[in-house]
Amino acid sequence: MLTRSDANPAVNHKGQPFKWEDPFLLDDQLEEDERLIRDAAQAFASDKLLPRIEKAYLEETTDPDIFREMGESGLLGVTVSEDYGGAGASYVAYGLVAREVERVDSGYRSMMSVQSSLVMFPIYAYGSDEQKTKYLPGLASGSLIGCFGLTEPDAGSDPGGMKTRAIKTDGGYRLIGSKMWISNSPIADVFVVWAKSEAHDGKVCGFILDKGMKGLSAPKIGGKLSLRASITGEIVMDNVEVGEDAILPGVQGMAGPFGCLNRARYGISWGVMGAAEDCWYRAHRYGMDRKQFNRPLAATQLYQ
Fold first, then answer.
1. How far apart are CA 181 and CA 231, in angstroms?
2. Once rounded to an integer, what is the mean pLDDT over residues 279-299?
3. What class has domain 27-289?
């Protein structure tokens, strides 16, 4: 039996030195382009996000320039084709970006994930060529900010209970309804919203709305206890008139929004790993630096 006195905490079960900075040895499993994207995201998060997060969190403010800065660093729409301003990279690369951003703050990762997975992905996967050309380059550069409207006041985990309706008109559709807890919405230029369409037998369809449309508003939700650096709001559609060119032609039914959410889960799972790793690193460093009774705090049984 291996006892505490026998164990070498710096060696893993294969006899290899334990790496505090990479406990799962992920770096050895990455492709070169994935490492480059990871390093770029790490530098961006350290240089651009870390210096502003404390003030942003305390004051519950979001700096829209962050989107442009992310775009300049190539961190938006990582999996989208280079033809539309993306990097054409893997979902591992996308996850690595989320991991580095969420080391700083979960709200910042949410901003990035919504733009990349919930706005750019449906336009790229389900949109027309005209929609892709119109929106994706601006979203990739961060000059346009997007939001994703699925959750409603009475339909969160149950999108089948959606009340937002798209009513067919002579020239397109009229949207009536509201969405709740929508990241980025108060500062968004592009709104990807989902509604039950009477013209499609009540199936859920996606629509692209533009800021400034008559009847479209996005009030901020304030007083949050978490994700305070990521602005959250509503989407209110009071008889918003759109043309036929606003509908996402490539999908009908719940496969549309669920396809987006499935892609977003990469960012969520990788992101929380970044947050957890940062907590672990900080705790480890504190335990090694803090001295009690002439030895590091990390040497005590309680800390271990």
1. 10
2. 88
3. mainly alpha
